[in-house]
Amino acid sequence: MPAQSLPRLARSALLVAVGLCACDTHAPATAKAAVPTANPNTAAKPAEPVDDSPAAARTIKLDLQAVATRRGPIALYRLGDGEVVLAGGVMLARAGADGNMTQETDWLNGLHLAEPGADWGVHALGGRDDDLWLTVARGGEDPAHRVYRRRENTWAAHEPDPDAPGAYYQDYATWPEGHAIALRSDGAGKAALVVLDDDGARPARPQLEVAGLQSPPRPTRLAGLTSGELFASVAAASAGAEGLPGLQTGMLRWGPSDTKGIFAPLPGLESRAPKQVATLVESGGQVLIGDGVEIDDEVVPYVAGFDGTSWRLLDPPPARGAVVSLVETPEPALLAVVDEDGPADSLWRIHAGGDWDVWERVELPPVQVPASWFWDPQAGAWASEPAPVAGLVPSPRAIGRDAAGSLWLSARLLLADGTASPHHAVLRSNPAAGSLALYDDGQVHAAQQDLLPRRSPRAGDPTCPQVYVHLYTVSGDSPEVGTPELRTALSGPLGSLLLGEVRSQGERQVGLLLAAGDYEAHKTAIAGMAGKLRYRSRATCGHPPLLRGWRAGG
């Protein structure tokens, strides 16, 4: 259930904003002056070129501050109680009581190991804080889905349909009374609606059957309203030109007590409707949808809303690309993320209070990324990256709003030359004391391994390619990794070893992270150094997540 909400579209349709000027001009056009007769004996001047292109849209600035950064994508999800949750890979991060973001490795308990490079990530998330449902997915050449339910502080695997191997929940909505309703797919194109309540999963009353359609509709997204109404974006077979079957995009709507839904085709933009619906959002009893339609070989943004009676098309933002995320703010105003060609996407705002409002391009503040250590899957080792000198430019990917009214935005960060960087960030209108560095995929995998029972390394054990030597637990903040005495001792033969500050077993620790072969070669020297400094060293298989690192050799 993506973290998005919807506006109440209590106004008439927006007029086409030719020129997309920032102000409204209703004054009548002035009378044209009489054109003087040309003197045939006077040489005619070349005509000035006429620029009939529309004026550039007004640009505004939005005061958002970074609350989280990550080397890798970050997704936004909104729970049934209105809380926004971040997802990086298969790890979740949430706002604490003080407003700062936190990530706890305990939230990985019960999930299968997500190895770096396997592209495991959160696909959908729904439910309440005390009863969460999670779908994780793996892309690539061997796609797969897994479903989990979180109860009593751990995830338990859930089988959506034992009779249909590969079935999964592809979307969640809150409906009714705070419970979740899920869109179940059997992996072969068949879908059903399932209510997820305190007792688990059961068939939902609304059915995916519509009279007059040649085949059952294929839903992709859900939105449940507090009134008990339910909406689903669908593609349905219908009679096309000359009686031939066609594919029609529309919305299914169920009333609070309906079993069968009512199908409504989407309004067309220049007689064209989107082939799918990328975003479906709800708020205050209203719904908004967004995507794109192809017109003259270009994709034009598409935004439509349901006002309680019918679907109404809004004039699109002056950009090229598909709308991938929508949100409403209290002004009232709409914010839309447009997925444009190239790495730079755009954010647009329109006030929803009058007929003459126009879309404005939103400029976002740069984000400063700190120096970091990350897992390099190609090298199979931890690598460091210095902090960029200048802030990186956010390229928006998703936007949403929580129950408290804070605006959230997830963005990819671009370098100064406009090219994509590996970094992503989440910005929020409610600032935090500091920006949280979310785990990358390698750190997530390390955190999952760290939750497994500890075991000592044995020479030649192929299941133990990495070794962590715990030296001491960190009791306070330090500007450097390790004590001066320890850093001095790590010289000479041990100068190539990586000294790290890690998060292990719920504690901040300092220890050595090295390959099993290096551990065997330096085991005696490491034990001697630890004994001389009075550390109770302990070697275990696996690397916990590395927060900071240091090598004597640089």
TrEMBL record:
Entry keyword Signal: yes
Residues of the signal peptide: 1-27
Protein origin, superkingdom: Bacteria
Keywords per UniProt: Signal
Protein name (record): Lipoprotein
Organism annotation: Nannocystis pusilla
Lineage: Bacteria, Pseudomonadati, Myxococcota, Polyangia, Nannocystales
